[in-house]
Write a structure and sequence with these properties.
The chain is an all-alpha fold. The protein contains seven helices and two strands, in the order H-H-H-H-H-H-E-E-H. The relative contact order is 0.13.
């Protein structure tokens, strides 16, 4: 019978492919995180607001509200992205007023069955500022 202490000191060799597999998975995860970070830096709302200082107030209101819980900059989460909303309504003559009303009163049915809750705590002027900021958004490819 072998001594249990000897068995604890002499582990069986591990296959070489396991180390390579772990390294590949870790590298893929690191590249994925780096890619997401790079895309966030490229499409920065801060840069967009810096180019249009009159819209900075609208950006601050959006960030202070719960908008970012459901809307992404270029990515659809629960609701449509800010860029998609801007592209859909930008050519509309009453776009700012229409979006301001949607912010205050809520909406359902224009982007599917998801309900956008109403925000009665946001007044008319604040919602107009938010809507103007939203309409000024552009995807990364169209920025100057």
């Amino acid at each position: 019978m072998t001594d249990p202490v000897d068995d604890e000191e002499n582990y069986p060799p591990r296959p070489r492919w396991m180390g390579w597999a772990i390294a590949v998975v870790m590298a893929a995860a690191a590249l994925g995180v780096a890619h997401i970070g790079w895309r966030i830096m490229q499409v920065s709302p801060a840069e967009q607001a810096a180019q249009h200082p009159e819209l900075a107030g609208g950006r601050k209101l959006v960030e202070a509200s719960d908008c970012m819980r459901c809307h992404g900059w270029e990515r659809h989460y629960v609701g449509p992205s800010f860029v998609a909303i801007a592209e859909r309504y930008r050519d509309r003559p009453d776009a700012a007023e229409h979006l301001a009303r949607k912010i205050r009163e809520g909406s359902v049915g224009e982007w599917g069955n998801t309900i956008m809750p109403r925000h009665p705590q946001i007044d008319q002027d604040q919602s107009l500022q938010m809507a103007r900021w939203l309409l000024a958004t552009r995807p990364a490819e169209q920025r100057d």
